[in-house]
Write a structure and sequence with these properties.
The complex is a heterodimer.
Chain A lengths: L21 H16 L18 E2 L9 E5 L3 E4 L2 E7 L2 E2 L13 H13 L3 H4 L2 E6 L5 H13 L4 E8 L2
Parallel strand pairs in A: 1-7, 2-6, 6-7
Antiparallel strand pairs in A: 2-3, 3-4, 4-5
Helix pairs in contact in A: 2-4
Chain B lengths: L19 H17 L5 E4 L5 H11 L7 E7 L3 E8 L2 E7 L8 H14 L5 E6 L5 H12 L8 E5 L4 E5 L5 E4 L8
Parallel strand pairs in B: 2-5, 5-8
Antiparallel strand pairs in B: 2-3, 3-4, 6-7
The chains are: A alpha/beta, B alpha/beta.
């Protein structure tokens, strides 16, 4: 059996070649400028909660620390802790106080616990960072605001996306 | 005298810039910035105001001051209504829905006119209806907070300088006036 001879294209194995990195540098420069523009300068790192469409606002104030209340179309949460469920963007009747239709006892208890046990400055000042879905009706939000005020959290900071 | 020594410099030839160190820096910087970048910029809606305006807002909250009270009723069915109450009299201005949606442009124009007539007022009571969406309320607050047109400013008295100055802020203090109403 005869061995086939490999074709020889005249490439010298010993030769070195210079990698052209100009285009790569161009790409990195563009990326660097873009990333510097979007660099987060805020003290508080705030990420939009999952399943939430925040409203847009022209306000240019950076977020400050506060108790993170999140109201999605389906749930009410404090941070990552679920407090109550929502059905059709409304609270279930068993989550609402029988004597006061704007009072949410479960939310009150949790906020009250926070207010009593925490030494954080923003909790003592009664500051809330509210992330709520833009499509929620005021009736639902009013229950949250009302209960939060009752629990000693009257300072409301509404989180919105920057835009027109 | 010895002749000058000619070094073999090629003045017309091209040379290649060594981009490797620059690239090395960028390769390190890009992941750092990628991690700390905020691709969705979140802001908060509140009243962080210049000192002069803050003082004016405090004066608004003083019950001794005889200034007009402005109430903005937002209703999903009928649109918006601005009520100016002063010295026992109430004046209403309707801003009806436009193509089935809130007329924010119309609201802004009305609020600018009201502010020009009542420059001492910085507070507005917002009274939304039960079905009004949260996104619309934020837009209403945006329209009320300050003048969109930078050329339109309003007079405010600076007590420290004892002189009148100008501000683009209209009604920076928006209060949910009906949020503490019990729903028994």
């Amino acid at each position: 059996m005869s061995r086939r001879k490999r074709p020889h294209f005249g490439v010298s194995r010993k030769s070195t070649f210079a990698l052209n990195i100009t285009s790569l540098t161009d790409m990195f420069t563009i990326m660097l400028v873009f990333l510097l523009q979007t660099f987060a300068t805020s003290d508080v790192q705030l990420e939009p909660a999952q399943g939430i469409r925040l409203p847009t606002s022209t306000s240019n104030l950076n977020p400050i620390e506060g108790v993170r209340l999140i109201v999605t179309k389906d749930q009410l949460l404090i941070g990552e802790q679920k407090i109550a469920d929502l059905k059709d963007k409304k609270f279930d009747a068993h989550d609402i106080d029988g004597a006061d239709a704007n009072f949410l006892p479960l939310l009150f208890n949790e906020l009250d616990k926070l207010a009593k046990n925490s030494t954080d400055e923003h909790i003592k000042e009664g500051r809330i960072l509210l992330q709520a879905d833009a499509s929620l009706p005021y009736d639902t939000l009013r229950k949250v605001l009302y209960t939060a005020s009752m629990a000693g959290f009257p300072q409301l900071k509404m989180v919105a996306m920057l835009g027109n | 005298m010895r002749g000058r020594r000619w070094l073999s410099h090629d003045t017309t030839g091209e040379f290649e810039l060594d981009l490797a160190p620059l690239l090395a820096v960028m390769v390190k910087l890009v992941p750092v910035l990628l991690v700390s970048s905020a691709f969705v910029q979140l802001m908060v809606v509140e009243t962080e105001l210049p000192q002069v305006v803050k003082e004016a807002v405090q004066q608004n909250n003083d019950p001794k001051n005889d200034i007009a009270k402005i109430r903005l009723v937002v209703d999903g069915k009928n649109g918006m209504k601005v009520v100016i109450a002063h010295q026992g009299k109430e004046q209403e201005t309707d801003i009806p829905l436009k193509d089935g949606a809130f007329d924010f442009q119309g609201l802004h124009e009305k609020l600018v006119a009201i502010k020009q007539a009542n420059p001492a007022v910085f507070k507005i009571d917002l009274m939304p209806g039960a079905g009004v969406e949260y996104g619309d309320l934020i837009k209403v607050m945006d329209e009320a907070r300050r003048s969109r047109d930078n050329r339109i400013t309003f007079p405010v008295f600076d007590a420290q300088k004892n002189a009148e100055t100008q501000t683009p802020f209209m009604f920076p203090e928006v209060v949910f006036a009906n949020s503490l109403e019990t729903g028994a």
